[in-house]
């Protein structure tokens, strides 16, 4: 009887391996990778036709996989960044004129005029306070605020005042005045130019069965550097085959795999982020759409097209020590030839340099999986980052390993520990 059970278990494992190989294999890796890194994508730079073409392709792949759209009938999670340049500012404070250099505003309005009757909440930012943290908190919560800022914060004040920045559309209006006094009577006017620049993530959803309100995210970024100065070979296109068409290839294939398995207890979200190369705007916006307490884990996948420092059948996990997610993945891979390792490049702070960082700072066990040899990656951010430099068989093995290693998390049997504020300091 015991021998029969072992044979039955081996038969099931063999059938499982055959099933996953039919969906996640080198041929399918190459098909997707070749389309995303082709010259006609123009390097997938934001605000270009190439990135729109890439977004349409990814959305179509999500649709074919059977994922649900994130917004009505659309797989596009659309938002805008604002490029703002101050034009003029002035006013009075407690009967005295205000210098233009002492007025700043965070607003989407081209013209803003306020006084003590405008209903703004006043807050005094003292020398002991952290101006940047206060502004970030008010931007998250929204509302209209007047900040009276101690002159010790001049450097940060200038950064906030400076034009030409890209920023999300504010939820309210924040006016900052540099003065070591509270505002009694005041009248402040601001003029600026505001240009909205549209961006879009591509997001598909596979609803869970018994734990629909618990989310597991598989993600990567689909933007790259576009077209630049030609190299010695005359190539001007930064194709980004490894960075990060490889990660998006993995996301698409995992979407296909789990959609065909149809046994995920938790809801799975597959996300292709825009604007990672420009400041992580896509993943930042995405993170604002979800309650972080409901996100059980995030598998962010970046640059898996080349062998890791340990060779094939291996990859590393950034921020390995900040949660026990890595240990769970290792447990699920125990009977395979694949190994996950802690990040071997801690001085490069990779945990904070990819699209996992925003949710990780909110406590989510959000980690990036990669094989990139960051101390010697020959084609990183060059025109030579093309499909011919990638190992399709090893990529397929990595993607299969991610699928297998996530099994108990997707099933709701394992929940990684949260990332704590203390661990973020380490």
UniProtKB/TrEMBL annotation:
Q: What is the lineage of its organism?
A: Bacteria, Pseudomonadati, Bacteroidota, Chitinophagia, Chitinophagales
Which GO terms are recorded in the biological process aspect for this UniProt protein? Answer: proteolysis
Record's protein name: Aminopeptidase
Q: Which residues form the Peptidase M28 domain?
A: 201-402
- GO MF terms on file? aminopeptidase activity; metalloexopeptidase activity
Q: Which UniProt keywords apply?
A: Aminopeptidase, Hydrolase, Protease
Identify the InterPro entries for this entry. M28_fam, Peptidase_M28
What would be one Pfam family of this protein?
Peptidase_M28
From what organism does this protein derive? Niastella populi
